[in-house]
Amino acid sequence: MKKFDLGKDKINKLLLTFSIPCVVSMLINSIYNIVDQIFIGQGVGTLGNAATNVIFPLIIVFNAVAGLIGNGAAANLSLKLGENNEKEASKGVGQSIIVTVLVSLFLGVISFIIMPKLVILFGCTESVYPYALEYGKIICLGAPFMIFYSSLSNIIRADGSPKYSMIMLVVGAVINIILDPIFIFVFNQGVVGGAIATVIGQFVSFILALIYIKKFKSIQLTKKSMKLDKDVFRVLGLGLSSFITQGTVLVLFVFMNNMMTKLGALSKFGADIPLSVYGVISKINSIYISIVLGVAIGAQPIIGFNYGAGNQERVKEVFKKVLIVNFIIGIVFNAIFFFFSRELVGIFINASDPSYDKFMEFAVLMCHSFFLVMALNAFEITGSIAIQSLGKVKKATILSFIRQIILLIPISLLLSLVLNQGIYGIAYAGCISDGICFIFALFVIGSEYIRFGKKSYESKEMTKFTSTNYKGKHIVVTISREYASGGRYVGKLLAEKLGINFYDKKLIDLAAKESGLSNKYIEEKEEESRRTENHDRIFIAETKVIKDLAEKESCVIVGRCADYILKDNRDVLKVFLYSDEKNKVARAIQYYGLHEDTASKEIEKIDKEREKHYKFYTNRNWKDFSNYDLMMHVDSLGVEKTAEYIKNYLN
């Protein structure tokens, strides 16, 4: 994050940098399940494929819990580091690690004990039951390892080590790929061998995650930071959106498994083949989903930063590029599913399998119907993630719910049961719900996109700076002033009298170009006493602008700690202007529209903010006379004569 400027660097470069590690990480999770499915399909057959599909909802549960804890802790880590609160950042990570250990052990033990009931709930048939039970119990033994490293991978990325996180996941996946054929074919262990290979790979990733705990860059974990309290619920709340999204996938998968077995039993395909085929095609589809999600999630920090900074044009550009890229990816996968469905699905089943012909027939049916317009899913997935980046969690969550819960399940029930289309009704429900969801996603994304297209904010003063014919000695006047003291107007009059440029609001335009933040954002945030990473960004940008101006031209600069920034410069006159409370209130009411009853308190509040801001960035007292060459009471001479006095002083 420190190497890149999210507000100024080229968007294509940023998207490649941030999205590629996300895509790789997302793909690895998919590969774990797909590798098992391929080798088990070739070694065991349809029943083995169906068994892995029955257990897959349990893996979704484990991933959902890991996402809840890991994404929440990662978001909290970034947030607290941005606030320069390392103590709270460390506490959030420490508590999350303890919660991960406790919850993963609990889930592993409970799921192992109730496995016989779970497989029935997940749509298992009588013939698949023994395979699913064997496979599932071993997967439960690896649950603590899987949940731990999956949760830690998110936190490790947020700590600034995406490569370590990626390597940790890749190593486990590679080990799984190597061991799968050994256990399944060499040792003839069938589904048990596939499960053992998976757990060994997960264990290695777990060890690597464990090693990283002592290597955190941004925080230092202590025993105290790992003590649980009620604040852990706030941290977990930050990962709730991810948990809800996984929850919808779980509900859909369990629903589809049960529908496949029940309706399949009434068709020529039987109960086992549709269950097996749906699992296979869903796993292949997960590769497409992983890539689209990875691109969208990689764009999150870019969208979020620029949205927070008010850079609507950049947000709009990122939105557009991510949608185009993901839609192209969708079209490619859509074409593969449609034109190469037999070759694609054939990887997962041996041609000598007795059920081969019916398996392939149903698989082609699903590819040509259920996934007929799968490319359109790119809009729903990308839109949901991008809108979440804007902080609009409710709208993003609704968009995620639309296809999975609100559309697909009711349409499936309508076509298959009400209209008596059976298993074919389920097959065609997918493309119908995808089409309707696409229209809704277009509406939601379009409304946000149009809003970004509104005319961007500009400061009240002209952004074009006048060229002057000033021929005198180089001079810079910095004016610090109490709110409503008339100091800004004094500075403007002085600049006009001297024939040099005046910089107050104009500095906002220059700082916006320098920082990548918007004019409006800077004007709203620049003098807040509360400090965040963007406040530092504003101060750094304004410092550079002020130094450049002081070097290039004679000018009058108002506020922004300019007296401190230019304290070592020659030819700088540092002025502080103040006024009586009565006169400040009168000016605030007349010129700034403050209400008579609250003007005094508002003036006091603003001056305190300025004082705190000045103290933080200069470590000096704002009203200390030793900081300035002149401290003037504006009311003594009046605004115009004060400006004239400063001009005479300069002369």
Please give the order of strands in the largest beta sheet. Answer: 2-3-1-4-5
Low-pLDDT runs: 455-465
The portion of residues assigned to helices is over 70%
Largest sheet: 5 strands, parallel
Strand content: under 5%
The total of beta strands comes to 5
Number of separate structural domains: 3
Q: Which structural class best describes the helix and strand composition?
A: mainly alpha
Global outline: elongated
Span of the ends, CA to CA: 49 Å
Oligomer: single chain
The total of helices stands at 26
Query: What's the Cα radius of gyration?
Result: 31 Å
Mean pLDDT: 86
Molecular structure report:
By secondary structure, this protein is mainly alpha-helical. It has three domains: 55-238, no CATH class; 259-456, no CATH class; 476-650, Rossmann fold (3-Layer(aba) Sandwich), CATH 3.40.50. It is built from 26 helices and five strands. Strands 2-3-1-4-5 form a five-stranded parallel β-sheet, sandwiched between helices. α15 packs across α17 (422-452). The longest helix is centred in the first third of the chain and has 37 residues, at 46-82.
